[in-house]
Amino acid sequence: MRLAVAQIITGACPAANLELIREYATRAKAAGAELVVFPEAAMRAFGNSLTDIAEPLDGPWANGVRAIARDLDITVIAGMFTPGDGGRVRNTLIVTGPGTDTSYDKIHLFDAFGFAESESVDAGTSPVTFELNGTVIGLATCYDVRFPALFTANARAGAQVNVVCASWGAGEGKTDQWDLLVRARAVDSTTFVVACGQGNPASIGLPAAGAAPTGIGHSAVVSPLGSPLVTLGEEPELAVVDIDPAAITDVRAKLPVLANARSL
User: Is the Cβ–Cβ distance between 200 and 216 less than 8 Å?
Assistant: First the structure.
């Protein structure tokens, strides 16, 4: 499978961010990718109001993503915001492309490091996997990466690849934690992990948005044994990488952590 990681930096305007998705998806298709992964909050960057732009999965922004995927004949994963309960929104990943149309709502909310995502976001409840050309892919969003059970649940549901879309918060030690967690989740679940984060706004001269987690970059694709296959820096970038999901069978024969796990 050839896939692309689109480490973009989004702003406040959903229409402009949709054009950014079109630009990077076009480049990914030209490079031969069948899947392009965008970060969390691709619809609108954190640090801006979310309730006024949240829309259903059949709304104009989501349909714009579908049109891009359809025009290019490529599968797209991108972070958006959909209406939740109690005046809050849901932090949603839309997945759309040939034969695929699904979504995932972020389960674990980022109430940490001085940020309270649960004040404005309504948590999802269920893991989601989907199939792309015979490969099963699980979904996760940002803070989810700190919770191994989601990744192993996806693996037990057949996932050979786990995708993590993020807008990681900056701070002391946070880059090291991101790198460590992404690699650990690959080994926990014996899956490839495709971790796509927002680039660091400071890398292109944009000011910080208070305590909002607006991204640090460092997107990566990691093997099921925890080895980085590609790693990015802080600036916007498109990376294209080939992975072989068939390798999962051999890895799980050598390291059968899923089979060996016991309920405690």
Answer: yes
In tens, the pLDDT along 205-243 reads: 998 888 899 999 999 999 999 999 999 999 999 999 999
Give residue-wise pLDDT tens across range 111-120: 998 889 999 9
**Whole-angstrom Cα distance, residue 51 to residue 36?**
27
pTM: 0.97
Contacts 24+ apart (CB under 8 A), 250-257: 251/190, 251/224, 251/225, 252/190, 252/224, 255/187, 255/190, 255/225, 257/187, 257/188, 257/190
The CA distance from 252 to 254, in Å, is 5
- The residues assigned a catalytic role are 40, 106, 142
- Rounded to an integer, what is the distance from CA 87 to the centroid of its chain? 24
